[in-house]
Amino acid sequence: MKKFYGYLLVILLVSGTAIAQPDSVGKTTTNEKATTISPDNVALDIAKATLAAHGGEKLKKMTSLVQKGSADLTFMGQALPGVFSTAVSGDKYYFEINSAVQSLKQVYDGRSTYSSIPGFSLPPMTSLGFPILQRIGDKGFVITALREDKKKKKGFRITTPDGFYTDFFVDEKTSQMKGYESAYDVGGRVVTTSVEVDEFETVEGLLIPKKYSQRFDLGQITAYANFKTKQTLVNSPMADDSFVIPK
User: How confident is the prediction for the chain on average, in pLDDT?
Assistant: First the structure.
């Protein structure tokens, strides 16, 4: 049971920071792209406006992002309070979560990935979620329209070169993201998730999610989580040992 909770908490942490999906789950096909040229152009305009709303060039030039706070999960009626810490700098990243159930950590030092759960790791944070807004306009990061079942919402999809996507939903007036969602495979289990952003904070000219709620559907099980960031650092110098893989 502790091992299952451990997997779920890792999913919570990475999904809370970033939502993604591999090629095998709902990736847009070439034929779909060929028939949605006009909507994709509209989606690109929406994406550019969202980038501007969250910092524009300042976000594009962001060199590091560190966040710490609480990550409280409700699962099968049981409350599991915890705290999280994440950092991204270039291609390097780490995330860590501590709870009454288990402590977990994943690190990428630019060459190798470490997970505190042997044989188990999730997609890189640098390919997922909010940090992907920074890559709008970059080669290989494809902007497309939302799929048919989401067309009533204003938004767009970003797909990374390694096949992960984030669907962003944005406010009609401000172009700020209201939420995002996806589905992805973890150890043969497809996890679908949706996020609603409740509060933003402005740090160094960037508008960054501070408080948000999240729903996870794991087949026959549904879990809910509330994330609240208590410290956010942008472009802060990262120590040489910040991304050292534990021995």
Answer: 81
